[in-house]
Design brief:
- The chain is mainly alpha-helical and about 70 residues long.
- The chain contains three helices and no strands.
- The model has no long low-confidence stretch (mean pLDDT about 80).
Length: about 70
């Protein structure tokens, strides 16, 4: 009897997690592109473009922070 309740509670928990996951994933869906937008934006980037974007992101991340101005007043 204990095993039946254990399995039943496990099924209920999995169902609840599934419903919550479905809500979370459906809320994150990007809206469809407008009809007047550029079609190039809808196409996925080529591998070369992805590499270039990654390199730019890395370069931006490793740039040293600007020094804060000192208040010598």
């Amino acid at each position: 009897m204990r095993a039946v309740f254990g399995i039943l509670s496990l099924v209920v928990v999995v169902a609840i997690v599934g419903v919550l996951a479905k809500k979370q994933l459906s809320a994150g869906v990007a809206p469809a592109a407008a009809a007047g937008t550029d079609s190039a934006a809808a196409r996925p980037a080529t591998p070369q473009q992805q590499v270039k974007q990654f390199e730019q992101a890395v370069q931006g991340a490793i740039q040293p922070a600007r020094a804060m101005p000192s208040d010598d007043k």
